Amino acid sequence: MTGTYLGMPAFPKAAHDAVHDPVLRGNLRHATHTIRAKRARAVGELSDWAALREAGRRIKDHTLRHLDRYLVQLEESVTAAGGTVHWAADAEEANRIVARLVRETGESEVVKVKSMATQETGLNEALEAEGIRAYETDLAELIVQLGKDRPSHILVPAIHRNRGEIRDIFRTEMGEWGRPAPEGLTDTPAELAEAARLHLREKFLRAKVGVSGANFMVAETGTLVVVESEGNGRMCLTLPETLISVVGIEKVVPTWRDLEVFLQTLPRSSTAERMNPYTSMWTGTSDGDGPRAFHLVLLDNGRTDTLADRVGRQALRCIRCSACLNVCPVYERAGGHAYGSVYPGPIGAILSPQLRGTASEIDASLPYASSLCGACYEVCPVAIDIPEVLVHLRERVVEGGPAVRQGNTVVLQPAKGHAAERAAMRAARWAFTHPGALRTGQRLASRTRRLHPRALPGPGRAWSGNRDLPAVPPEPFRDWWQRTRGGKDGAK
What segments bear the compositional bias annotation Basic and acidic residues (predicted)? Predict the structure, then answer.
């Protein structure tokens, strides 16, 4: 993965700075609590929510197990419907394909539907380097682009901005990108929305090329699906002469019947609506209706490697609803930028390190950006066990660094900066596999409990400086059980 997040500090440093910003904290707290409450009411209306959640999990797992077959079927269906399919192994290849397709049209600007895949690849920056200007048309993405900012939320990229900040951005920046903001613009939602509508309308009417992502791709028909709330996506998907869609390979579903499950769970989990206002679907091209040329760029960019991980692959079930962000106490306080990725929050903490690897400082820190409270798992509409994957990735960070080929074997190199933690984990493993030594150690710890420090020395201060060391009980559990229950060595 590439993009505008390179060079950002690791999560602990970024989060430390974010929690000292009272405006950011207030914006996040208000927004996440509001969305969280609305989602809970919307989900509570369905008596079969648990069954829908389980169905979504099974559909996604089945598709991932047979992804090769469904991707080939998808390509055949898209091609039969008049579209052209391109395969991109990584972000750079995807960007090259899109830039080439735009240049072939002779155009120098494109309008975009909100797309996390193109944010992941850094497409806007890549197109700019080729002399092509990309205009974001989603309201929140427009705010981020005008403010020379980064998205901080999956569903609401400008969640870190309040209405006053948005008004100021519109007043100062809109004129540089097209139609300026109206005179005397206030921060009322209706006026801000109208200013964005007027600014974007001229772009929609003159654009010849549209770029989109997709929420889902139906293998049996080659149909792509975008769900949205504003109508900007519908404009981008229907008015341009050429449509280019960049979509992660994990977004495929086998059949229309499978799609029905997600069209119930995604709106309720994301915008807390029974059904999203706009569901746009397109299949290839047709004479006299919509774009004359359709290109689908299927993006890997680390997804195949993620699929090979038995525990971590469940992150590929994600349908980008953002429910996990809205209930996460860490995200609420640190914000999305602290994660250093287009995928913030709990899902970003497990997806980004798998797509990018854990060799960098920021990606090695993300699995620790969680209290493991489990709220994210409880609200996930496809039952991704994010805490399980976080612990799994922590093990990967501790046990080894990047994978390096040695002859015909791929091995993990030792992770830098974790020698002490790795040694401690190995010592614990040895103790738990030697009951006699464990019993002796427990008795010794109980008898010397008065001598134990209140804080750890040396590097351990970073841990005990924010936590109370657990008190050692006066008697080991094994001894207590034997004394009170009469069992031998803790067993009846």
Answer: 476-492
Instruction: Please name every residue paired with 210 in a beta bridge, in sequence order, or none if there are none.
Output: 111, 243
381 φψ region: left (φ > 0), alpha (ψ -120 to 50), beta (else): alpha
**Contact predicate 358/397, CB 8 Å:** yes
DSSP track, 338-365: GG-SSS-HHHHHHHHHHHH-S-SHHHHH
**CB-based contacts of 309: which residues, under 8 Å, 6+ apart?**
354, 392
Closest listed residue to residue 111, CA positions, set 4, 232, 229: 232
Is residue 332 one of the residues assigned to a domain?
no
Closest residue by Cα to residue 342 from 121, 28, 119: 119
In the three-class reduction of DSSP (H, G, I as helix; E, B as strand; rest coil), residue 278 is classed as strand
3-state secondary structure of 452: coil
- Domain containing residue 153: CATH number: 3.40.50.10420
- Flag whether 383 is in a domain: no
Strand partners, 211: 112, 244
Q: Name which residue leads in pLDDT, 234 or 461.
A: 234
What digits encode the pLDDT tens for the residues 12-53?
999 999 999 999 999 999 999 999 999 999 999 999 999 999
Query: Residue 409 forms beta bridges with which residues?
Result: 406
* Residue carrying structure tokens 């901005």: 161
Q: What is the pLDDT of residue 418?
A: 60
